[in-house]
Design brief:
Elements: H1 6-9, E1 12-13, H2 18-23, H3 29-33, H4 50-53, H5 55-67, E2 72-74, H6 82-85, H7 94-109, E3 114-119, H8 142-158, E4 163-169, H9 172-186, E5 191-195, H10 210-217, E6 224-232, H11 233-246, E7 251-256, H12 270-282, E8 288-289, H13 297-306, E9 324-328, E10 332-336, E11 345-346, H14 355-362, H15 366-378, E12 383-384
Parallel strand pairs: 1-8, 2-3, 3-4, 4-5, 5-6, 6-7, 7-8, 11-12
Antiparallel strand pairs: 9-10
């Protein structure tokens, strides 16, 4: 059975980039349409369609990574949700794409290799408005996002995955929607959250620090929390050190093969990447290691060899943050419950306690409602208590 105990014995190796390997097949537009309902959209690049049109290619890639030493393989389902698939006119296939992706991986993995169901962030953000002149506008609601993730996650679980991997996360609200969907299906099902930072500062695209993001999702009993994509192993190491300092969960990391070159390719060799990963492992800050953009079975083979015999991070290596009350916006705010000093909490954003705020919400005047929150921050509030019940 997959649980945190599994991660105490040794560092587990995750596979590498699916997209990088698919590109090597030089597939045509027809290859993506094969076996699918008639569709006038261009499907080339919609790699999830290959779960139906060319499952043998996806299975072959899985097997290459297993042969390279991967303990865990990811399903080819990063965008197998209605929101992402709508761009290709294939939203009705979302569940099937997730289901078949999980079945292919399970078939390749057998009973010895773990299968993580890949769940990407979708192509939309719940936190960022697409139009800066209309800050309240969103193309999808939280409920829409939950329903899309629910369909995808059900397909993955029905297909036999061992855990759900919510990856390349840039918006904590999207991630919370995925966790909420999973919680409704099975609140005890193993899940990993992997964040993608915007740059070396360690903040996400929405502006959150890593600890703030962690605080936003740590209510779920995660199998692991970590980082992927964005940077190479060398540049992610300082950020991973930070995560290892506050995470009460095991820590995962799967970097890119360095930074992209001027053509968008990745030049870091397996040997170069393995050297950096070994340093990361010897620092005692990882439990799961793998590869993201630009990595191949050769990279995974080198990584697998590099971490062999190195003890994983102790899963109780957090800083004791659980002894404090911690909440977060763009940054975390912690209150020492044993030696608590005064903390100013703004409570006017409360439909039960403020008649003015309740009227604004009922009228859909969110911009003025938001100004009430902003005014409280200007007046010294460190925390805003939002009650919409």
């Amino acid at each position: 059975m997959l649980d945190k105990t599994t991660l105490k014995n040794r560092i587990l190796v995750l596979d590498g980039a699916m997209g990088t390997m698919i590109q090597r097949y030089n597939l045509t537009e027809e290859d993506f349409h094969k076996g699918l309902p008639e569709n006038s959209h261009e499907l080339k690049g919609n790699n999830e369609c290959l779960n139906i049109s060319h499952p043998e290619i996806i299975e072959e890639i899985h097997k290459e990574y297993i042969a390279a030493g991967a303990d865990i393989i990811e399903t080819n389902t990063f965008s197998a949700n209605r929101i992402s698939q709508k761009e290709y006119g294939t939203e009705a296939l979302a569940y099937t794409l997730a289901l078949e992706g999980a079945r292919i991986a399970r078939r390749a993995a057998g009973s010895e290799i773990l299968v993580f169901g890949s769940v990407g962030p979708t192509s939309k953000s719940l936190s960022l408005a697409p139009d800066i002149n209309n800050p309240a506008e969103r193309p999808y609601s939280f409920r829409d996002m939950v329903e899309a993730y629910d369909e995808q996650i059900r397909g993955l679980i029905d297909g036999g995955v061992d855990a759900i991997l919510i990856e390349t996360c840039f918006d904590a609200l999207n991630t919370k929607a995925a966790l909420y969907a999973l919680e409704k299906i099975d609140r005890h099902f193993p899940a990993v959250v992997s964040v993608s930072v915007n740059d070396k500062s360690g903040r996400t695209l929405t502006g959150q620090t890593l600890q703030a993001f962690y605080t936003s999702v740590s209510h779920y009993p995660l199998l692991a929390f970590g980082l992927n994509c964005s940077l190479g192993a060398d540049d992610l190491t300082p950020l991973l050190n930070e995560v290892a300092g506050f995470s009460l969960f095991p820590v995962s990391c799967y970097p890119n093969a360095g930074l992209p070159n001027e053509m968008g390719g990745y030049d870091e060799t397996p040997e170069e990447m393995a050297l950096q990963v070994r340093k990361m492992a010897e620092a005692g800050i990882i439990n799961i290691i793998g590869g993201c953009c630009g990595t191949t079975p050769a990279h995974i083979a080198a990584i697998s060899e590099a971490v062999k015999g190195i003890r994983p991070r102790k899963t109780d290596a957090g800083t004791g943050i659980d002894k404090t009350l911690t909440v977060s916006g763009l940054e975390p705010v912690s209150i020492d419950l044993k030696n608590s000093n005064f903390t100013n909490i703004g409570e006017r954003t409360n439909v039960a306690g403020s008649r003015k705020f309740a009227k604004l919400i009922a009228a859909g005047d969110y911009e003025t409602g938001l100004q009430i929150a902003a005014d409280q921050i200007e007046n010294g509030a460190s925390i805003i208590d939002i009650n919409m019940d």
